[in-house]
Amino acid sequence: AEYVAESKVALDKYGGKPIVRGGRCEIAEGKGCPRNVILEFASYDDARAYAFSPEYAKAKALRQGAGVIDIVVVEGV
């Protein structure tokens, strides 16, 4: 709960919006992840700013040890 609240502070500051949170997922090839979250930002730079921000670092510290997490910033449509 604390992680979600702190993460939202960072999301709001950098204009992020969750567009996928979990849901059905089938790994057709490769290892993949059983649960996926996709966040949308206005730009690649905004996404990077969020991912490397002190605000998100605070949230990330609350989540340490809770599981294996991959965070990837991808420029898209």
TrEMBL record:
Name this polypeptide is given: DUF1330 domain-containing protein
Parts forming coiled coils: none
Domain spans labelled DUF1330: 2-77
InterPro entries linked to this entry: Dimeric_a/b-barrel (IPR011008), DUF1330 (IPR010753)
